[in-house]
Structures are given as C-alpha cells and as structure tokens.
Amino acid sequence: MNLSEIIDKIKELKAEKNAVILAHYYTRPEVQDVADYLGDSLGLARQAEKTNADIIVFCGVHFMAETASIISPDKKVLSPVLRAGCSLADSVTGDDLRRWKERNPDGLIVSYVNTSAEVKAWSDYCCTSSNALKVVRSLPNDRQILFVPDKHLGAYIQEVTGRDMELWNGACVVHAPITAEMVLRRLDDFPEADALIHPESACSRDPRVLRHPRAYMYSTAGIIRHAKESPKRQFIVATELETIHELSKQNPAKEFIPIHPDTYCDQMKKVTLPDVLSALEQERHEVRVPEETRRRAVIPIQRMLEIG
Ligand code: SF4
Questions:
Q1: What is the distance in A from the centroid of ligand 1 to the CA of 151?
Q2: Quick check: CB of 172 below 6 Å from ligand 1?
Q3: Is the Cβ atom of 114 under 6 angstroms away from ligand 1?
Q4: Single pTM value for the model
Q5: How would residue 43 be classed by pLDDT, with cut points 50, 70 and 90?
Q6: Closest ligand 1 atom to the C-alpha of 60?
Q7: H helices of 37-150, where?
Q8: What is the rounded distance in angstroms from the CA atom of residue 75 to the CA atom of residue 218?
Q9: Structural domains in the chain plus CATH codes
Q10: Cα–Cα distance between 239 and 261 in angstroms, integer?
Q11: What is the distance in A from the centroid of ligand 1 to the CA of 250?
C-alpha cells in the first residue's frame, strides 16, 4: 500500500468504527496530519474526556494513552506502538510515592502528567506544563509539597510562585540538555527573534533567561499560541523539534529556528502511519489500567481538569 492508500484506509476505518485519532505535537508530521485532534498533554487529556468516539487511537507515548484510558474507561484506547516510553515517566514509581506518603502523611504529592497510572494513583494532584502554576498556587500554604518527576519544571514553578517544594530528581532527556547558554547564544545570533522555551529545559530557573525581554517560558500549546498571536516574524523554538511542523503550518510566513537539531524525542517518533492503520484494523494494543488503580488515579486528574 502506498502512503495515500494508507491514509484513505485510516479515514475509512475511522468512520466505520467511530474512532478518533489523538496525536501529540511531537509525533511524526504524517501522523499529526491524520489526527482529528493535535495537542499537548493537557489538550489531549481534555479531548479524551469529551470525545463521543468508541475508539481512541492515541499517538504519543504510553503514559498518555494510559491517561486517556483512566479518564474514559468506557472507551477502547489503542496505542499503535506499546513500547513508546518516556524518561520522565520512568524515573518514579508508585512504590517511591507510597514510601514518601508514609514518611509525610500530611504532605501533598503533585505529579506532572508524564507519569504512570501507578504514580498518579498515589498523587493528590496532577498537572501539565500548561496548568502547573495554577495547580500549585491553588494548594494550601501550610502543606508540604512533593513535586514529581521533573526537577526543571519543578524549579521553574518554585521560582515563579515562590512556593517551596521537594523536587524529584527526574528529567526529560530531550529538554534537559537545553541550557541557558544555548538560549542566550541563539538570542544573540537572532536579535529580532523571541525564544519560546519549554519549562522542562535546564534553563527553566536561570534568571538570565527568565528576565530576558525576548525569552518566554511556555507549554507546547503556549508556544503555538504565542507564535500565532505575536507580530514578530522569527522565533527560536526551545522544545521538541517536531513542534515546528504545526508552527510552520499555522504561520507559513514566519520563521522558526530550532534551538538545537538534537531536540528530538525518538520515543514520540515510534508511531508510524502503518502502525496507526494496523491498530485500527485489528483493534490491537488496547491500553487498560486495573480498575482499583484507575479509580484512584482519576482523582488527581479530575482535580487538575477542574482547576484549569
Ligand atoms: S519529549 Fe521528554 S517528556 Fe516528552 S515523551 Fe519524550 S522523553 Fe518524555
């Protein structure tokens, strides 16, 4: 089958089976182009919550499909490739959090959405990079907080909110190598450009970046919004490389400069169009979370969705 036949078949099966394709901005461009909804973690979680489809084909990494299944247990959630992982999700376990809770019975655990269902089940609140500041600001001042697993996002939240938190020692292998020096050098090289930076980056709490008049810290959805609304013509993109596919589609007259050619998440690229087609054809690789874990894990996710 050639590419256009694969795309036609995917469209046909989607209609026949009442299926919807959700894809993250970091997936391959051709996968993004067949998606019914393209988004970052928060946008995709909201979409999974409100869809009327019977089947959700989730193109991203495993924890994202798990989150969709936790939110929509009555839907069949398919992950076209089961082995797509994430360095952040792998850095903390449910047992780690159980032990922390035993030591800190009054403490609150805020977990970034990039975590397993087990970890969410031990968490009090979930957050994404879109709403992390809002979630942490909503918490009572007298409670101790553990933030897992991304230390750079955690440090950024501490810096902006002034809230003291214990930070887990996890990091995203794609964003963590983005340093302040790298960003400042790019800003010097392109004096007309704004730098749009994901807070999983190592520069997330560096005052030289935070106070720079042309540097902005955003979730992926925030980066896309800024590029669209700004009158500027040139942007330095300090997040996963494939985000530039959607940025360029939405803003054909603007220029997007990658912070570095290596900001590439190979896990997000594992899903190909033939994988999407076989998932739909065979309804294979269903992601299901054990009911007891799901019942507990849905609580911090719902709290997050209610906060915003
Ligand atoms: S970009 Fe980083 S946080 Fe996102 S899936 Fe890849 S490893 Fe995980």
A1: 14
A2: yes
A3: yes
A4: 0.93
A5: confident
A6: 5
A7: 41-50, 62-71, 94-103, 117-121, 132-137
A8: 31
A9: 3-85+268-288 (3.40.50.10800), 89-173+296-307 (3.40.50.10800), 180-258 (3.40.50.10800)
A10: 11
A11: 23
